[in-house]
């Protein structure tokens, strides 16, 4: 942080010592100077991106207006004040009054942070320049009448100027200044953003933090794994949360993943935790993490260059670590991974040597913690000291036991204390269990039942879902009972991992184990006489020995993998009070002939029978879920199931028909996904008034549905991939709540015109409907539709004329259809962000295309786009393989100022409009296979730009790499690939277009001003110049670096590389793509994706440059570093997974790629090299061989204009 004077970072009082602030920051500024620029950007970064509550008064008041009481309150109720002192700040009496009040309220607590924006701090302090002029004006205006006020303003301004703050002149850009301010403010308000409740007492934590601090060694730049080990309830999670809270702001990414063991056991996968970890990087692309394998790949690829703080809480298996944090090289320099576990062996097996064992509290600390809970203060009551010591002695220093015991005795009389202590003494050897059970003993019978139900069946469930189940179980509202359990520390509430607006009901492991022990003691020797079962051996015992009784209320068996069992299901006949059954992954030969009529929830995967028992009567049943069952049908006729709300039979592949739903009026969700033999859908399904979700996806045998639906509450309806379904129902007038409609992959020919009755529809998926011809005009009435996808509807020919009326549409995909004309109203889609009109690169469509185009002539020469001027929100435009001819891209394409990705590959134009240079947000520009393209236009000014022009065989002119915009965003800078573009190789073999591009990139990016800037260029070539001092045959070389201590002071700029490679004739043709990658110790790997094997003609160069910034974070780097080149393949259909075990010491991939790296070279780039490069005296970096020059003379697209002439027009 660049202060104008020195200030201790600890000068502000910690947040917990002051009041609870309504605002974190009060922002004072002169609107005329900075409102629309600097202040707006600063406020947005503070308030929206960093969640720092910032008060900004935007009103423009007349001179002389008094500050309102509301504004005065805002100043008093703000923790900090940021004052933006700009050139005309003092000309506003409003600003001066505001500043005077800020000084009055905040000076004493050092809470004022001045920013000297385009002013000299000395001018502010001494009121010179514009400040002198302002005060002259004020003195003339107010004269002697208000001279004292003017004097107060001068004093306030002087005091503000004497404070340390930020001087904008010390920064190269406003972005850097704002980043510095935000980091500082974040550190000041960070104590308000806690994982731990600030009122929660923390006892005996100082020595623990001190010892952990030695293990963490934050000053070290290596990657460290630290284990926190101890028994349940000892405080491992609390310690990890506190450490995370104190140091997380020092890291680029900080994530606390709770309950790893439980999430893994509950879901059988860690995908949700992997998504939670990766979401800040992948954002909208997080959906690509669809299994653990993908999550593992993304984790090691996305985090290896970031300084990460990761806490994995409650890990119980080594494979959990392997999928979330396998090795140190998954994380960037300075990263810390903290693992809490009960199993020391787990840490040893994972190679973790830094282990902290959490011990219990000593007697003094334990007494303090007990007193905080029993007396709500740090000190004990003298009259109860001896009794207090007795309880403390019993708890054996276990924090959880001390808290539970203390709270159970709060505001109890001495006699009650003696009685409670007596209970403890009757259970020797059961300290933890008995101490926890004290709270349980004080519950009434109903609350005890609720507590045991949660412990056995519902731990971790959504609170609303749990309340619904319990309300039905006990026939009254269970909300009070849940709240009582929370108050008594038997349950806790946590935010949902999936939805911040929802909460989950949790309990500590020891408390759950206490509940299990309570039930075990109901019948220590015979599990069948207990009220609840959830342990594997107990349940097997009951069903093998037919020992169930009417005492059983619930059974849950969740096995991680499918397991065969030989049960006697007649045991159900004795369980007349059974309410809850859940069997997961148990495979038995035959099902029950009887089910208790008291059942409320029945979940049974792999259910063995072809139907439910003939005479079942499940009047109380609310939830029936039987995934992967052997059911052919559920029941015959209409069964009376008045309370059934959830029916789920996913992957029941033998199911042939749905039951009669006439007597299931309250059904909310019906999920029959992937019931591949399902043919008959009972017509009563269309009359379920409360049905909200109907999922028939992948039911490939369904041929018809009821003709009309009147399901008023339906929100989600899917017949996705019902490939034999030719017609979907008409939609009733009352169906106004539907949000998502999935018809993709069906055989429908048209969409019902009644679709416009779905006024709230947001998502309509029609892709892969190969028989679909068009959409009804009525679809244009869907004002709230956000996404529409008709891709791969090969017979689809025409869109409605009034398409532009769908004013909310954001995503429109129509790839590989037969559309010949798009309506002009498309330009009215002002919110459209993604437009994909991709053709087929294998077999291009004949005739007109996509409606943005019109025929230019009767000959099939391609299509011309209409104006794109209305699509001002567009971020992604794909027009690849559209057969667009010269002039087909309109000149106004430059108006798409928000476009980030533009794909024009596989088209027939010769040049492109110069307005492309105005696409200031463009990051990805694809032009592959444009075989007539001769020239790429000048490029936009952007923070990073990646252009691919592979196989543009007529290309002879390269683009101008415009001044790359300075950006704090970490990027790869600039890349340009031109494989098989032999027209770019100059006859003389020097000063060619590639060299000209290198010169321009060097002038813009190699200087130290650009920090992490780098670039990549791929082009034909077959000889590496001697300019690359380090050379080696094959795919690796060793480069001697300057000593690390001299990196920041030396004239060393970075590293330049040149790699020569070609097709490997022995490589397999099985994969879709091949990748060539450079990796080394201490830097991120660079890679380039090539086309299919055999597409690369002759030898090629890969030239890239890495700024020395890439190495600065690696302080352990030696003076010699080895770089390795490797290739590998991947398929679009079957992704090739390369595990960490397939890497050699230097990162070489075992998998053989489709390309052969023949030679590689490198050079340390110094300032002198840069001067020679820019002056043109170094002209032999790239040397094409004569064979290219000979071919090029007669090759396609050769132009009479040299590359020097092309560049000189701009230079």
Describe the secondary structure blueprint for this structure.
Layout: E1 23-28, H1 31-34, H2 38-49, E2 54-56, H3 69-76, E3 78-85, H4 93-106, E4 112-116, H5 121-126, H6 130-142, H7 147-162, E5 166-167, H8 174-189, H9 206-216, E6 224-229, H10 236-247, E7 253-257, H11 260-267, H12 271-282, H13 292-302, E8 308-312, H14 318-324, E9 336-341, H15 344-349, E10 354-357, H16 363-374, H17 385-395, H18 399-409, H19 414-425, H20 431-441, H21 445-458, H22 463-474, H23 479-487, E11 492-495, E12 503-506, H24 509-520, E13 532-533, H25 536-545, E14 554-564, E15 580-587, E16 601-604, E17 623-625, E18 646-648, E19 669-671, E20 693-695, E21 708-709, E22 716-718, E23 730-731, E24 740-742, E25 763-765, E26 787-789, E27 811-813, E28 834-836, E29 853-855, E30 863-865, E31 876-878, E32 901-903, E33 924-926, E34 945-948, E35 974-977, H26 993-1005, E36 1014-1020, E37 1030-1033, E38 1036-1040, E39 1052-1063, E40 1073-1080, E41 1086-1090, E42 1100-1107, H27 1109-1112, E43 1120-1130, E44 1155-1166, H28 1167-1175, H29 1186-1193, H30 1203-1208
Parallel strand pairs: 1-2, 1-3, 3-4, 4-5, 6-9, 6-10, 7-8, 8-9, 13-14, 14-15, 15-16, 16-17, 17-18, 18-19, 19-20, 20-22, 21-23, 22-24, 24-25, 25-26, 26-27, 27-28, 28-31, 31-32, 32-33, 33-34, 34-35, 35-36
Antiparallel strand pairs: 11-12, 29-30, 36-42, 37-44, 38-43, 39-42, 39-44, 40-41, 40-43
Helix pairs in contact: 2-8, 4-7, 12-13, 16-17, 16-18, 17-19, 18-20, 20-24, 21-23, 21-24
């Amino acid at each position: 942080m660049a202060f104008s004077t020195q200030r201790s970072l600890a000068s502000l009082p910690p947040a917990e010592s002051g009041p609870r602030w309504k605002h974190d920051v009060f922002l004072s500024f002169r609107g005329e100077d900075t409102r629309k620029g600097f202040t707006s950007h600063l406020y947005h970064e503070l308030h929206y991106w960093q969640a720092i509550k910032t008060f900004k008064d935007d009103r423009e008041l007349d001179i002389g207006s008094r500050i309102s009481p509301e504004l005065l309150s805002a100043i008093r109720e703000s923790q900090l004040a940021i004052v933006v002192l700009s050139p005309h700040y003092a000309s506003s009496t409003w600003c001066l009054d505001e500043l005077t009040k800020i000084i009055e309220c905040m000076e004493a607590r050092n809470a004022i942070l001045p920013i000297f924006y385009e002013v000299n701090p000395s001018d502010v302090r001494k009121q010179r320049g514009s400040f002198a002029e302002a005060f002259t004006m004020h003195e003339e205006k107010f004269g002697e009448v208000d001279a004292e006020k003017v004097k107060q303003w001068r004093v306030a301004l002087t005091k503000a100027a004497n404070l340390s703050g930020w001087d904008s002149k010390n920064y190269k850009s406003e972005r850097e200044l704002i980043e510095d301010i935000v980091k500082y403010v974040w550190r000041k308000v960070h104590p308000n953003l806690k994982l731990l409740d600030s009122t929660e007492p923390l006892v005996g934590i100082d020595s623990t933090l001190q010892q952990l601090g030695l293990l963490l060694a934050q000053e070290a730049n290596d990657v460290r794994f630290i284990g926190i080990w101890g028994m349940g309830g000892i405080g491992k999670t609390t310690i990890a949360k506190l450490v995370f809270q104190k140091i997380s702001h020092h890291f680029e990414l900080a994530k606390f993943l709770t309950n790893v063991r439980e999430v893994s056991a509950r879901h059988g996968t860690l995908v949700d935790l992997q998504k939670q970890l990766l979401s800040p990087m992948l954002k909208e692309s997080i959906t690509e993490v669809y299994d653990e394998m993908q999550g593992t790949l993304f984790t090691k690829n996305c985090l290896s260059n970031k300084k990460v703080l990761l806490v994995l809480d409650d890990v119980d298996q080594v494979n959990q670590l392997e999928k979330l944090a396998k090795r140190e090289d998954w994380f960037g320099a300075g990263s810390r991974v903290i693992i809490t576990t009960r199993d020391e062996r787990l840490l040893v097996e994972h190679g973790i040597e830094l282990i902290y064992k959490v011990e219990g509290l000593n007697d003094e600390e334990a007494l303090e913690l007990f007193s905080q809970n029993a007396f709500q203060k740090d000190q004990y009551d003298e009259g109860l000291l001896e009794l207090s010591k007795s309880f403390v002695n019993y708890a054996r220093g276990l924090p959880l036991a001390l808290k539970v015991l203390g709270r159970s005795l709060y505001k109890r009389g001495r006699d009650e204390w003696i009685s409670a202590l007596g209970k403890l003494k009757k259970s020797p050897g059961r300290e933890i269990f008995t101490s926890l059970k004290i709270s349980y003993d004080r519950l009434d019978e109903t609350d005890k039942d609720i507590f045991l139900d949660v412990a056995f069946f519902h731990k971790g469930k959504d609170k609303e879902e749990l309340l619904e189940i319990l309300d039905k179980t006990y026939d009254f509202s269970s909300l009070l009972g849940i709240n009582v359990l929370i108050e008594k520390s038997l349950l806790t509430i946590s935010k949902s991992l999936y939805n911040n607006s929802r909460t989950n009901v949790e309990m500590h492991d020891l408390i759950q184990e206490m509940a299990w022990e309570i039930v075990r003691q109901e019948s220590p020797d015979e599990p069948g006489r207990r009220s609840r079962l959830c342990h594997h051996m107990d349940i097997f015992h009951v069903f093998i020995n037919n020992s169930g009784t009417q005492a059983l209320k619930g059974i849950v068996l969740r096995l991680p993998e499918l397991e065969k069992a030989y049960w006697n299901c007649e045991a159900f006949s004795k369980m007349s009070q059974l309410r809850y059954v859940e069997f997961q992954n148990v495979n038995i030969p035959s099902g029950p002939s009887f089910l208790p009529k008291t059942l409320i929830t029945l979940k049974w995967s792999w259910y063995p029978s072809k139907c439910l028992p003939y005479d079942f009567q499940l009047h109380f049943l609310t939830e029936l879920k039987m995934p992967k069952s052997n059911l052919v049908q559920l029941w015959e006729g209409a069964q009376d199931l008045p309370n059934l709300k959830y029916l789920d039979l996913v992957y029941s592949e033998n199911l042939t028909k749905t039951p009669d739903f006439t007597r299931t009026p309250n059904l909310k969700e019906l999920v029959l996904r992937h019931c591949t033999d399902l043919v008959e859908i009972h017509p009563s399904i269309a009359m379920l008034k409360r049905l909200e979700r109907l999922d028939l996806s992948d039911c490939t045998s369904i041929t018809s549905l009821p003709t009309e639906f009147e399901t008023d509450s339906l929100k989600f309806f899917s017949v996705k991939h019902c490939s034999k379904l030719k017609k979907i129902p008409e939609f009733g007038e009352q169906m106004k709540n539907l949000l998502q409609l999935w018809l993709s992959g069906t055989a429908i020919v048209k969409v019902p015109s009644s679709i416009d009755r779905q006024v709230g529809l947001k998502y309509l998926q029609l892709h892969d409907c190969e028989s679909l011809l068009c959409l009804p005009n009525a679809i244009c009435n869907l004002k709230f539709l956000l996404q529409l996808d008709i891709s791969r509807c090969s017979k689809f020919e025409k869109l409605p004329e009034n398409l532009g009326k769908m004013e909310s549409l954001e995503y429109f995909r129509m790839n590989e259809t037969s559309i010949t004309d798009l309506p002009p109203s498309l330009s009215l889609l002002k919110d459209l962000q993604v437009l994909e009109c991709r053709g087929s690169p294998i077999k291009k469509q004949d005739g007109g295309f996509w409606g943005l185009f019109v025929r230019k002539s009767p000959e099939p020469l391609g299509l011309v786009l209409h104006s794109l001027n209305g699509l001002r929100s567009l971020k992604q435009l794909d027009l690849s393989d559209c057969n667009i001819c010269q002039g087909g891209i309109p000149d106004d394409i430059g108006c798409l100022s928000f476009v980030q990705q533009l794909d024009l590959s596989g088209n027939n134009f010769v040049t492109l409009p110069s307005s492309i240079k105005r696409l200031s947000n463009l990051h990805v520009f694809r032009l592959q296979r444009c075989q007539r393209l001769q020239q790429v236009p000048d490029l936009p000014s952007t923070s990073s730009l990646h252009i691919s022009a592979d196989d543009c065989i007529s290309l002879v002119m390269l683009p101008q790499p415009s001044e790359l915009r300075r950006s704090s965003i970490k990027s790869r800078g600039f890349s340009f690939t031109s494989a098989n573009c032999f027209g770019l190789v100059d006859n003389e073999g020097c000063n060619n277009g590639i060299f000209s591009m290198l010169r321009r990139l060097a002038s813009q990016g190699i200087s130290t001003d650009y920090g992490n800037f780098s670039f990549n260029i791929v082009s034909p070539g077959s000889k590496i110049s001697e300019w690359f001092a380090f050379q080696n045959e094959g795919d690796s070389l060793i480069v001697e670096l300057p000593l690390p201590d001299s990196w920041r002071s030396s004239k060393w700029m970075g590293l330049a590389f040149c790699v020569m490679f070609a097709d490997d004739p022995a490589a397999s043709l099985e994969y879709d793509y091949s990748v060539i990658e450079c990796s080394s110790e201490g830097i991120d790997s660079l890679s380039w994706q090539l086309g299919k094997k055999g597409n690369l003609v002759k030898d090629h160069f890969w030239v890239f440059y890495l700024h020395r910034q890439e190495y600065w974070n690696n302080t352990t780097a030696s003076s010699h570093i080895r770089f390795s080149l490797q290739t590998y393949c991947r398929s679009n259909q079957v992704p090739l997974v390369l595990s960490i075990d397939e890497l050699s010491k230097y990162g070489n991939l075992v998998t053989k790629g489709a390309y052969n790296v023949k030679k590689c070279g490198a050079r340390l780039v110094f300032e002198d090299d840069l001067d020679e490069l820019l002056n043109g005296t170094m002209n032999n970096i790239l040397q094409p061989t004569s064979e290219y020059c000979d071919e090029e003379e007669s090759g396609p697209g050769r132009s009479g204009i040299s590359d020097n002439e092309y560049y000189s027009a701009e230079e």
